[in-house]
Amino acid sequence: MKISTQLKDNLLRAQRNEITEHHIYRQLAAVTTHLANRTILQNIADDEKRHYEFWRRFTGQDLQPNSWQLKKYYFISRVFGLTFGIKLMEQGEKQAQINYQTITKELPEAADIEKDEEKHENKLINMIDEEKLQYIGSVVLGLNDALVELTGALAGLTLALQNNRLIAMAGLITGIAASLSMAVSEYLSTKTEGVEKNPLKASLYTGTAYIGTVILLILPYLVVPNLYLALVVTLLLGISVIFMFTYYLAVAKNLPFKRRFWEMTLLGLGVAAISFGIGYLVRLVFGIEA
Question: Taking the model in full, what pTM does it have?
Fold first, then answer.
């Protein structure tokens, strides 16, 4: 069958995409210990190979996988979890479907490939059984509370104490106490609710997320000499954490990104602004001088 140059270019892109995803899914299946997840990943890898063979019939060319994409998604899936890595690939598949729609105008047989891609999405959505997602609510609880409470506390302490080391010390003590309190509360809450989550693991996820955020937020007060610049850096770090974790949730859980990001950012900055004002009033009332 003779095909146009433009169609051949599109087919080659689709063919490269299929062989790349075949190797990604195969490598992920090889390192996945969960039997059901591994089986589905391997099945999808086999489908991707069949798709590759289908495109090769028309292009007449053998292609190697995109090594950068292969390494990138494998690394992301290993570091940030199978769910997050797969969802990123799923977004890439959606872009590939647009390419398929273009191809089917000249090559109707490609419609079957497009249907297979839709099945892949459903399999991917239904296959996930990952501990990281089971306890994501506990992590969110720890992060949210630490970001809102500690940014507010540090803003108030900045104006009230006017001393970097004192602020860092007070923030650390407050943060550790709060993280322990949150961990205990999550343990009791999980145990009382009788959900499938392990109460001890849930409390560890909450406490670890909290104390990790605490350490990150007080760090500027230990390395930045200027008091108010340290506060600005702390707030920027807080916003960065919100951005990264909101993006992670948006991808892994199919949640809206912009609304959740701005909602949490405005809450954190609002609490910080109020606490900064409280710190100013504390200085006036108690007559604290810099």
Answer: 0.74
